[in-house]
Structures are given as structure tokens and as C-alpha cells.
Known about the structure:
Two copies of one chain form a homodimer. Chain A is mainly α. The first copy, chain A, folds into two domains: 12-74, Winged helix-like DNA-binding domain superfamily/Winged helix DNA-binding domain (Arc Repressor Mutant, subunit A), CATH 1.10.10; 79-222, Up-down Bundle (Four Helix Bundle (Hemerythrin (Met), subunit A)), CATH 1.20.120.530. Chain A contains eleven helices and three strands, in the order αβααββαααααααα. Chain A has helices at residues 12-25, 37-44, 48-60, 79-103, 106-124, 131-145, 149-156, 160-168, 175-191, 194-206, 212-218; strands at 34-35, 64-67, 71-74. A three-stranded antiparallel beta sheet of chain A has the order 1-3-2. In chain A, strand 2 (64-67) and strand 3 (71-74) form a beta hairpin. In chain A, helix 4 runs parallel beside helix 9, helix 4 (79-103) runs antiparallel to helix 10 and helix 5 (106-124) packs antiparallel against helix 6 (131-145). The longest helix of chain A is centred in the middle third of the chain and has 25 residues, at 79-103. Chain A is globular and about 55 Å long. The interface between A and B is medium-sized, with 25 and 25 residues. Chain A binds a DNA duplex through helix 2 and helix 3.
Amino acid sequence: MKIHRKLARESARDFALRVLKENIISLELKPGTVISENELATELGISRTPIREAIIELSKAYLIEIYPQRGSFISLIDPKMVDEARFLRRITDTAVIEAACDEIDEKGIALLEDNVSLQEFYLSKGMTEKIFDLDNQFHKDIYEIAKKDIIYEIHSTLMIHFDRVRNLSVETVKDFKVVGDHRNMLEALKAGDKKTAAELVNKHLNRYQIDEKEIRNQRPEYFKS
Amino acid sequence: MKIHRKLARESARDFALRVLKENIISLELKPGTVISENELATELGISRTPIREAIIELSKAYLIEIYPQRGSFISLIDPKMVDEARFLRRITDTAVIEAACDEIDEKGIALLEDNVSLQEFYLSKGMTEKIFDLDNQFHKDIYEIAKKDIIYEIHSTLMIHFDRVRNLSVETVKDFKVVGDHRNMLEALKAGDKKTAAELVNKHLNRYQIDEKEIRNQRPEYFKS
DNA sequence: ACTTGTACACTTGTATACAAGTGTATCTGT
DNA sequence: ACAGATACACTTGTATACAAGTGTACAAGT
């Protein structure tokens, strides 16, 4: 497991949570991996308590399974879980971008404009690895513009189910299309065009329609049923 | 605070969680009430650890606010939070009942039929206090029929924001309309009529459009801003 | 060979001890 | 009387000790 440095004012619990999330998303912690509170505590240089609190939180998002007195492990990829996450993301993103069309102002436009410009820059320079974070930030910004930031926060951990499957099917060839989507969404937001914005969100999410069968063939041991 | 008995195979953490949730929903624990891990531990007859784990979970759903080294309290009613919860419930319930129209089978119909019949029975006998749980179960069943039970689970704690405001504006006169809504939804589900089902969900949720101004006048100390 | 029991090395769950920070009440000096 | 220092009684955060359950390895007896 990759362990980053504990930040300055970061509590031990938040540290553990951050490290675990990052490693689950990046598949450094593979689905099915057995984890132990004691081991993690030693590895991160903190006690069991904050580790345990982080593990409990992730188990509530179905990212870790805890079997009392027996052990815990990183949840296997559960197609039903991934489906529900995708379903939820689709309906929420759609409704939120429509709300954002009503709520957006100059400041919001500037925020998104900066983000998309940067994405276009990195794309033109071929630095596509920089786009991942900007992509996430773009969507988070839209939630904040629509005044739905708590919904974003609540859903964010759940979307890790989605993210780690995406990371199993890396097709960076799609990057330029994704950036184009963002540009188009921004234009629709500027114009207050809900219908187009909603359509774009749907088209955008369709790009992440991963080929479950292929991934499952490659990594059957990562899957649940 | 009302403390129920700890169930047989219930862990101390789940016990604490259940008691806290129930008391927050029922407003036995009023918005703004200061709580202390030590006090709760004594009161529930368990140690700080499981109490603390429950409090952390509720703080993640914004139902409790924790100020390190200073104290914790039951979150005040935050209109923005209530709005987001209602927004989320509306879009999710709508999408889920549409999905249920496609997925429902004989077994699902029987499940809902039993529930609604019971609601109608209690309503005719004037035992409207029994309807609350059946109402919740009805919606949960629809999520399960649509194979979206994890979404229900994830959202359930968040909807407490909604529930406790509902409990501040008790207008039981609406009960019979609610039961009628359920009957109509069931018929739409049987017919696989997505459009009608979605409209019914919206109409149904509009009944819970609480008069925030009035509640705020009555109980200004419960509100945030 | 096989079954059965048993010790042991793990696991998570819970309780408790200690660390560190905050706010208040009180005491002290001016 | 008032200002400031200080002790103290809280709070949550973290570490650690102990409880209880599980599975495995292994030895003893049949």
C-alpha cells in the first residue's frame, strides 16, 4: 500500500481515511485484499482507534467488508453496486446541472472557464494524467454552483465503486472527448440551456460505460458473483 | 432521552446508533442539544468507544456537529440541508419508481398490496399512528423492487433531516391523502405506467412541503441561520 | 488413516487510560 | 473595581488493555 505523508493539521482518522480511499481507488489495495486493523496501524504509525474509525466509515459505503472476530477485506467489485452508483450518478448529475443552469452567475462561469481551459491546455500538451483531478473538480464545482454541495459530499465515497472500475479499463483515448464534453456543458450552462446540459451529462456518462465482461475476463478474482 | 432495550444480537455500536437516530427523529433530542460521549456512555450503559463510533457516523450525515476538544451537539435545522435532502429524495424516488415499473413482478405486487391494505385498514380505524412505519416500508419496498436497495440505505440517514422537520409540523389530517397516494402508486406500478407513477411521486412529496416560516416562528431556537 | 480435541495465534468489539485543547470561574495583584 | 493569570473541570482525540470469537495446526487416541 502506498502511504502518503500525514498532513499538518490532519487528524489521524482523516489521514487513515485518505490513505485508504486513495489506495482503493488506485487499486493499490486490490478487491479482496485482507486488511488488519493492527497491520494498518503499524504501517501508518498510528493506533488502532483512528484506523478502525476509518474502516467503519468505508464499510458503511460498502468499500470494505467487516466480519467480526474473523477479519476485514476490500470489497470485491459488485456489479449491482456499480450499477446503483452509476444510476445514482446519472440521475443526480442530470438534475444538478439543470439546477445549476438556474443558479449560475459570473463567478461560477469564471470558475468553470478556468478549469476547462486548463483541461484543454493539458490535453494539447498530452499531459492527460493531469485531467483526472480537474474532471472531478469540474463536476464538484457544478454541484456547488447548484447549491447541492452536501449531496456531492454524501455521494463522493460511494462513487469510488465507479472510479476503481474506470481505473481497470483505462482508455485514455477518450480524454479528448471528455474535455470536449466539459466545454460543451459550460457553454450550455452559460446559455442556461437545461435540455442541452442534461443531454450532455447523459452522453458524458455513457463514455464511462465500461465493458464489464472484458474486465471480468481479465480479472475474475476481483469480482463478486 | 428515551432509551430502548439493547437487542439480543445487537452490537453496542448499533445499539447506540439506533437510540440516537430514534431520539433525533422524534425530537426527543432537540436541535442544538449538547451531547457528551461520557454522559451517553453512562446513560446507555456501554463504554465511550461504541458511542463515539455512532456519533462519528451521524456527524458524517450532518446530524451531529463535533467540535474537537469543545463538544458536540445535535445539528440545528439547516434549511439548505433540508432542501438538499428533499431535492435528492424527489429525483431519486422519481427515477426509482420508474425503474420499479420495469422490474416489478407478482411477488412485488403482493408485497405492496399487503402494505397498502394494512394502511387502509389502520386509516379506517383511525389508528393513524401506525401508518408512519408502513409509509416508510412502502417506499423501501419500491427501492428493493427496483433493485436499488443500496441507494435507499445510503440515503436513509440523510432523510432524517426531512423526517424531523415533518415531525415538527404534524398535520395528521393529511394521512388519508397519503394512503390514497400509495394506493394510486401501486396501481400505476401494476400497469407499468411510468409517467403516472412519476407524477404521483411528485404530488406525494408536495404534501410534505412544510411551512418553514411557521415552524421557524414557533421554534426559532431550532434553526440555524 | 482418521477423527477429535485442544492449544494458539490471529481477528474485531469494547473498555479504559492518557493526551491535548477549551472555556469558565476564581484568585491575585494593581 | 478591574485586568490578567491560573487552576480546574470539562470536551474530544488517540493509545492501549482486555474480552470474546474464529480458524488452523497439530497432537493424541481410536
